[in-house]
Write a structure and sequence with these properties.
By secondary structure, this protein is an all-alpha fold. It has seven helices and no strands. Keywords: Membrane, Transmembrane, Transmembrane helix. This is Rod shape-determining protein MreD.
Amino acid sequence: MDKPTSHIWVMRGLFVFLAVLVLFLHLLPLNTQPDRWPFPDVLIALIFTWILRRPDYVPTLLIAAVMLMADLLLQRPPGLLAALVVLGAAYLRSAAPGMRDVGFAGEWMSVAVAIAAVFLLNRVVLSLLSVQQAALGPVAIQLVLTVAAYPPLVLLSQSVFGIRRMSAADASTMGARA
């Protein structure tokens, strides 16, 4: 294996480690009282951060596997949120080459729209299937907190893990669309 290929696999392993860490911290019983504020969905924000920065590090099957694992561990309807996040990631993956010129504010707005669509479609499908769900207020707060968690995750990914946005030269050497 050459160095770029092994580096991609190391970064994919890092992504899986971070996803498992987020799930572990989410499941860890730190307090016996119910939370006053819902926890932001850091896993979705992390996936969208990495998909816009380096789409080769998070292939679609890896996203589906991680989100299905999260659905099962967090006792959500299996596969629904995983499918919606895969759809949102596919949209962002296709929009990523055009976002090189819009700056961070435009990128953040695109991610906010994708996160809102995932949350809204999840709620619509659950209501169509008559599945009991949380009240709208906490879900709206979780949506806002998830969108607000995106900039710190971008900063963390860039400064600590070195996940920078692909340049046009990087994309052309990998055979991706520029």
